[in-house]
Amino acid sequence: MIVVGGPTSEALAFKVANELGVTAGKLEVRRFPDGEKYLRVLCDVQGQTVAVIQSIHHTPDELLFEYLLLADTVKDLGARKVIAFIPYFAYARQDERFKPGEALSFKTVSKLIESVGTDEIYTIDMHQHRVLKSSEIFGIPSHNLSAMPLLADHVKKLGKFQNPLVIGPDAEAEQWAKLAAERLHSDYDVFEKKRLGDAKVEIRPRRSEARGRDVLIVDDIISTGGTIVEAVKILLGQGAKRIQVACTHPILAPGALEKIRESGVEDVIGTDTVPSPISVVTVAPLIAEQVGRNGN
Ligand code: R5P
Q1: Angle between helices 148-158 and 174-184 (to 10 degrees)
Q2: What is the pLDDT of residues 46-71, one digit of tens each?
Q3: Mean of the pLDDT values across residues 231-256?
Q4: Could you report the per-residue pLDDT of 24-49, keeping only the tens digit for each?
Q5: Measured in angstroms, how far is the CA atom of residue 221 from the centroid of ligand 1?
Q6: Between the CA of residue 63 and those of 5, 9, 74, 88, 160, what are the distances in Å?
């Protein structure tokens, strides 16, 4: 088994390889003077199972193309099997034609990934709202892992919050709130969210009562921060004592982190699926466990 990190996930691949006690495969990646991308695989992949790690965030078109170049090359060089680890999978939110004529980007991206000979795919807390199982999208074996237990363990280790009420800001977040609450031996609830625009949401509480409680808000993605800020307003209005926020993918659009910090939260953390100033939890053990299982 060889672990290779694409250009955006080199550091993560290094951590995964470290966990497994192997050396991560190396690449040479640069641009030709005309802007085209050059990629060269510097390790021998002949007959090997290759775990390709490449998170697709921020400049998703470029990073997706790098994945395609890398996986296709590895397969062409004789790899026996290519397993994609795409910790943040962009385009998963465009899983439906909301307006006539829109591109079904989620489907297009999955077809591209399969077209280069990817044999199996792992994602982490992939946005699954209307599409509930990744097998509805992918024609290859697919697995969606969750970083929530790792985030909850981190919160527990910090030991600042006692018996926190875990809140998911919308119905979809129930899966993550439940996982985190189980890990923290605590209770959870979710709010109801209506999206009014790319950066505007309306949130209503359901049955939870945060008065006097420490609260942990969990979500898959923080992008503009709008969702978290609205949830914080409700919780502070209810009289929550202290609020901590944890997300898997800190996409953090410009100004998002400042907005959240100013909203009155004590702390905000994320994982390294997307490198960011709040990526204090690594998903390397989660990936290493699966790579190890696939062995040679
Ligand atoms: C959407 O349903 C997701 O689970 C997140 O809640 C959303 O992507 C967060 O986006 P933003 O930070 O822009 O509100």
Answers
A1: 40
A2: 999 999 999 999 999 999 999 999 99
A3: 96
A4: 999 999 999 999 999 999 999 999 99
A5: 5
A6: 12, 10, 16, 11, 37
pLDDT digit string (tens) for 213-237? 999 999 999 999 999 999 999 999 9
How big is the chain, counted in residues?
A: 296
Name the token pair of 167: 């809140």
Known active-site residue 15: no
**133 Cβ contact partners less than 8 Å away, ≥ 6 residues apart:** none
Residue type at 124?
Answer: I
Instruction: Quick: pLDDT tens for 139-190.
Output: 999 999 999 999 999 999 998 887 899 999 999 999 999 999 999 999 999 9
| Nearest CA among 36, 32, 28, 5 for reference residue 18 | 5
Residue from 217, 222, 230, 261 to probe ligand 1 pocket by mutation (most atoms less than 8 Å from CB): 222
Q: How close is the Cα of 169 to the center of ligand 1, in Å?
A: 9
Does this model's pTM top 0.90? My answer is yes
Pocket test for ligand 1, best of 219, 261, 274 (most atoms within 8 A of CB): 219
Is the CB of residue 177 below 6 angstroms from any atom belonging to ligand 1? no
State the amino acid at position 29 in one-letter form: V
**What residue's CA is closest to ligand 1, atom 7?**
221
* Cα gap 264→97, rounded to integer Å: 37
Catalytic residue among 193, 194, 233, 241: 193
Report which of 109, 149, 107 is spatially closest to residue 130, judged by C-alpha positions. Answer: 107
Choose the residue to mutate in 144, 227, 268 for probing ligand 1, maximizing ligand atoms within 8 Å of C-beta.
227
Any atom of ligand 1 within 6 Å of the Cβ of 172: yes
- Per-residue model confidence (pLDDT) at position 266: 96
DSSP state of 131: -
